[in-house]
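One-letter codes give the sequence; the integers encode the fold. A sample entry reads:
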Amino acid sequence: MTAWKGAAIMSCLESAPELWIYTPEWEKNGVKLLRERAPFMW
């Protein structure tokens, strides 16, 4: 339930579209893109 609420809040943020990863981008850049877009360090 907490993850659902967190995702709902995050999707409403003004900067949310910058975080989406689309298929062509993923196919071109793979995991590198995820590391650049993720809102957290991993």
User: Anything to note?
Assistant: The helical segments are 2-12, 23-29, 31-37.
